[in-house]
Write a structure and sequence with these properties.
about 325 residues; alpha/beta; ten-stranded mixed β-sheet; two-stranded antiparallel ribbon; 14 strands; binds 2-acetamido-2-deoxy-beta-D-glucopyranose; signal
Length: about 325
């Protein structure tokens, strides 16, 4: 007769984590956080994340002028994207991710997109994600956005801060977010402050907590200034995002302006040197700190993950 051999896991490394109301599962404590042991004790507000601009707007077709990415969202995530950005519009009564208008580029249902990301989250429980979605039509937060997060299974793992507005220095560490299994931070640029029909505790008002430098930059020197922010917290208490997605005007002789993402220069734009230069340009506006979000087009081109590793001190 053979004896069962039990491999004992030290009790200190597992604990009961609440999955949803009344449901608990044994969970192993996080020891590798977003791919690095060193990031476990790093506060969220002191971490730099690789961010995919218009993450849903991908195409391999160079003539798809409204594209901002070449590869789909799961490939972006595998490259290292941990902040996903998208622009939402209503179409036939449903929320889609579309670039400018749904006639120009329809990236499909927000729900389908979130389900796809959720498959990655389920398979990778030690990854903290951020969504910064734009809501140009001020679609209702409580009636439209929340049910989509609920149905996609994101709401139970979305982080609700202890106070509505979190200062940059007050965020938990990645390990704390992971051990609580509250590892998705959700910002909307408009409507989340109550102006869009009610508030939802885990849908946070971006510009009250995250400032950005100018969007749609066309200068490859990436001059920085605080462009979009909204009180009441001081700018120093905000997280910050650099718009490092270079655009070019395709109207000849500058007779007008139609900006498209500059694909041909993507290898230069997404080089470590260009990203670090931009981060440095913003340092005077952020007490010398690195950006929290490096927003890029074509994140499969260049050294995007390496640049973010450098900003994190690796
Ligand atoms: C994190 O803190 C270190 C040390 O103060 C700093 O050099 C770095 O820029 C900070 N990063 C972010 C994203 O705040």
């Amino acid at each position: 007769m053979r004896f069962l051999s039990l491999r004992l896991i030290p009790l200190s490394t597992i604990f009961l984590a609440q999955i949803s109301n009344g449901l608990y599962l044994l969970r192993k404590r996080a020891t590798i956080c977003n791919g690095h042991a060193e990031l476990c004790d790093r506060p969220y507000g002191n971490t730099t994340f690789l961010a995919a601009h218009n993450s849903y707007a991908f195409s391999r077709d160079p003539l798809a002028l409204a594209r901002d990415q070449e590869v789909d969202v799961l490939t972006q995530i595998n490259i290292g994207a941990r902040m996903l950005q998208g622009q939402a519009h209503m179409k036939n009564g449903q929320l889609h991710f579309c670039h400018t208008t749904c006639n120009l580029f329809d990236g499909g249902l927000v729900f389908d997109y979130l389900r796809k990301v959720k498959t990655f989250l389920d398979a990778n429980p030690y990854e903290v994600f951020t969504f910064i979605f734009t809501n140009p039509e001020q679609v209702s937060i409580s009636d439209v956005w929340k049910p989509i997060f609920d149905q996609a299974g994101i709401s139970p793992i979305a982080y609700t801060p202890p106070t509505r507005l979190m200062k940059r220095g007050d965020w938990p560490t990645l390990k704390e977010l992971l051990d609580a299994n509250k590892r998705v931070i959700i910002f909307l640029d408009a409507g989340a402050d109550g102006s869009g029909g009610g508030t939802v505790d885990f849908i946070l008002p971006q510009f009250q907590m995250v400032w950005e430098d100018p969007f749609s930059p066309t200068d490859n020197e990436f001059p920085c200034k605080i462009d979009r922010t909204d009180g009441p917290l001081a700018n120093d208490d905000h997280l910050h995002l650099i718009n490092h997605n270079l655009n070019k005007n395709i109207v000849p002789w500058n007779l007008g302006t139609v900006l498209v993402s500059d694909f041909l220069n993507a290898p230069k734009t997404n080089a470590v040197s260009s990203i670090l230069m931009h981060a440095n340009n913003c340092a005077p506006f952020s007490q010398g700190r690195a950006p929290n979000f490096v927003l890029l087009d074509y994140i499969n081109i260049g050294q995007t993950a390496q640049a973010v590793d450098k900003l994190n001190g690796f």
